Fold this sequence. Notes:
The chain is mainly alpha-helical. The chain is built from 13 helices and 2 strands. Strand 1 and strand 2 (37-38) form a beta hairpin.
Amino acid sequence: MRIGEIAALVGVTSRTVRHYHHIGLLPEPQRRANGYRVYTIRDAILLARIRRLTELGLALDEVRDVLADDAGRELAEVLGELDADLARQEHEIQKRRKALAALLAGPLTPDAPISPALAELLKSAPVTSSPTAAKDREHLILLDGVVGGDAVYAALRPLADDPAVVPMYERLDELEGAAADDPRIATLADDLVAAVPDEVLAAIPDSGPTATGFEEALLADYSPAQAEVVRRVMERVTARLRRRSS
Length: 246
């Protein structure tokens, strides 16, 4: 058989066969005097096996291991790893479909797509024109799925229902343009720290809520006096987290 014939028989392309030769996965067959490759039934059987293994999802390096001599990995081991990987992918796909179903079931907002748990929390948040409240919402959306997920959002629900929260946002708004040593900073930071429920801290993973560099970027999003309030709050909340884990 010529290369086009074995390719057609097995159901691959001639280019694929040449690639398998190039990477050493399929041995080069004998050649005729005119230079054309001549394939045997044994070549076709090996090529068909390679095709079946790749269709199962094995990478070419894994196929090479399966086809190797005793030094290679057993087929059962490779297929077991593949099955576990497919199970993980299936689980992730189910989670994504569940999130999509939740999005499609309700009116799509400018914030979409966000997790269903965060969407429920934002729905319960009080209506306010506070610029810092809007920033807080944006920061939650940015960290969606990083700060602990459903448990954190559930713990934040009492804050969304607390009538004292909006006035604290308004006090933070009033610090726009104020100096970083404004006397109102300390009291507001105290009140904000006191408002953070222990349940929120309990829901935050021990690894911490943010990535490296996030704190600096967050503080840069505020005016100097507002940033000082936020810095103090973050510092004291972090201290509470450390005491919890010690």
